[in-house]
Write a structure and sequence with these properties.
heterotrimer; A mainly alpha; B mainly alpha; C mainly alpha; A: mainly alpha; Four Helix Bundle (Hemerythrin (Met), subunit A); disordered N terminus; C: mainly alpha; Cytochrome C Oxidase, Chain A; 15 helices
Chain lengths: 226, 147, 540
Amino acid sequence: MSSSNASNERPAWVAHHFDTAGQQVSSAKLGMWLFLATEALMFSGLFLAYFLIRKLHPDMVLVASEELNKAYGGVNTVVLIFSSFTMALGVRAAQVGNQKSLERNLMITIACAFIFMGVKYIEYSAKIHHGLLPWNFFDMEKAAHHSAALASFEYTPMFFGIYFTMTGLHGLHVVIGIGVLTWILIRARRREFTPDNYVAVENVGLYWHIVDLVWIFLFPLLYLVK
Amino acid sequence: MSEYVFLNGKRVENPHESHHHISPVIVYVAVFAALLVLTGLTYAVSFANLGPGSLPVAMLVATMKASLVVAFFMHLAYEDRFYLFMFLTSLVLIALFFGFVLFDVNAAGALNDEQAVGVPRLEEGLKASETAPVAGEVEAPAPDAGH
Amino acid sequence: MSNQTHDSVEPSYLVAKKGLLSWLITVDHKRIGLMYLVATLFFFMVAGLLAILLRTELFTPGQDFMSAQTYNQVFTLHGAIMVFLFIIPSVPAAMGNFLLPLMLGARDVAFPKLNLLSFYIYCIAAVMLVLTLVMGSLDTGWTFYTPYSSTTGTAVIMATLGVFIAGFSSILTGLNFVVTVHKMRAPGVTWNRMPLMIWAIYATALIQVLATPILAITLMLLCIERVLSIGIFDPALGGDPVLFQHFFWFYSHPAVYIMVLPGFGIVSELITVHSRKHIFGYRAIALSSVAIAVISFLVWGHHMFVSGQSELAGVVFSFITFAVAVPTAIKVLSWVATLYGGSIRYTTPMWYAMIFLWTFTVGGLTGLYLSTLSTDVHLHDTYFVVAHFHYVMVGGTVIAFLGGLFHWFPKMFGRMYNERAGAISALLVFIGFNVTFGTQFFLGHQGMPRRYYAYLPEYEYLHQISTVGSWVLAAGLFLVLFTLLAGLKFGKHAPANPWGGVSLEWHTATPPIEHNFHHIPHVESGPYDFPEIDWDSAKH
């Protein structure tokens, strides 16, 4: 029925509407890259909002960003970069058929993601404690008590609004990442991936790298304004 | 006719060959190391007190890190050129969006000042709205002389 | 060519699997296309009835039966439902889904399960927009401009979340189509041998993928403004309301091309098949679709000429908007040139195609008035704008859509509709549409503002004509519906290829079997190479 090669068996994992395995794999990859483009475009809107705030209120942004803990931010940056490294190693392991290495690297990546969320939790708690929140929840008294410099600006809550929005959306993507990584780990444990059939691992890897990429830009913009 | 395999309307020369490039581990290690170094550089740029130059420089460093991740971790360097084209197209689109809007915010601010229209300056929004109605009123209560 | 219409033992896709559940969990692109068709036509009717309510209220200058607040809600919902639940999904998701794999010679789209997911995401979005109605309604206009949208008490969050989710449906459909066109073409279907419908849908899919994420983030920012408040759109909080307009129109302008490009694709098919003539300027039309997609991203500021945008930005946007008229004009002229010397059959699809040529051209030309800075200052936010976009969206997309429905009705359902009823519907739609919206150009030119529910007595005469026109248009549209439904039930069984088309969808069973083709076709000629064309004497 299909035009596939008579001398070659069709692997079981190739869906009925594809002619060859190569067609399925390259379709999956193209689809994933297109999806990544949409993710990049979506985050770019938030980056634009950030740049606008920074442009309109440069002095406020400079002071408000000092409230962010550069050490925590740095730790998170290193954690995410490391997790990207292990993810890339995991994809490579799938390419060569090294099941143990694949599982190990996936688990490390997931652990890094959890560490990232843990640090974020600490950071968010501190902000909430000091009342440093978006406009509708900003507590001027607590903030002024915490830092007089902050209270001297009229639009301080804007910074924290954009901070929580950007890191919040990013954090949501990290959590989703934990979910898909776990799913891939489960499939890897079931020995579903072979050197011919690993595009799902690769695609999840691509997603995870985008999460890392967004943070690479977020970090200096939010934490290191000075 | 059924012996041949077709993809995208054209005959595939060698359908069983998979063209997936496998990077040696050392490449990943090197990229990781470079990323760590660049992260350090990001900090250094921040503490170097470059004033207005610190934003472009920081963005440049971030772009370098991003390029490494995209090229090697995401394999874009080894993929069909079409993926690079897609990627760059998205970047161009984003740049356009940013460019036009930022340019317009700049220019609109300057235009309003030049016309001395009573549109409250964006940073004085709160104060001015107490004393004058919005946009269009020529007699502005002159919120501030210098800008 | 392959695969003639033998009565196969294999049943058509309509009856291949039975039962409601088989439809609800189908991954067959044809069934999914039909489900989209039913859903989008339903919302077309809902939003259309809202429009009739509006027009009836506007029959006299004062209040008739609606309060001002209700009027605001009705026009907002008319716009939001039409844009997000009808026009954006209709041609791509309903027709595109059905036709794309057939025209490419594929067995399905690249990601069939994702396709089904897109449909369900659309349904969720539709439910949310319906919920908006009962949760306090929406009165911001479909454009959601701040500061009103960030402060009004209506159900803005529910509505914007609904639209946000509809956006995901759009993105996933677009993604599916781009990959399908790249990867799933049958042997011999090169880029230059694809039907122009595919080129149109491909260009549309590109826009869907690239522009819709910006809508997502814009609406998300709006929701956050209402719940948390960053302050980015409110001067009192440090922001600027014009920013919202930049964000919003950066998506929404390309979105209008999502709306109209597939219509262009349909018209290319209708004109060639019903005049038995090879398309004039295949490459020009194909590339102009992509050109329109590209340029569409560069013109959003023409919605904001009088919003407080800088003059220089205005000039730039105005100039580029003029540029986008060029590829569009190339298409229109190519279609007219195709008709010239063709063997024209006056079937219902051809009537609709011809109506399109008139109404879309008027719409396009009036766009030029609006893109000229100096005239736009007078025409912005008047009925001139309303007339312009209805001429391109209704006179463009909807007319093309209706023509496409009649054209592919036999293929989809295996039945013929009543030709005379179809022709009468085209006449009613043509008259009703032009009376309704043609008068609105004059209304707008004389200064009648849009979105006003009460107006000065001097506008009454034209408003009344417009309202009567809308009733005629509604009658025509109901006739379309009845004609098609009657065709389903009582229509003659259709031959395999009632129009003699040569693109691949006409070379499989009517209606198609579940997997489209018994044998994947190997294509050696183009989609418009009608057998009676004498190539030796061809002058092109």
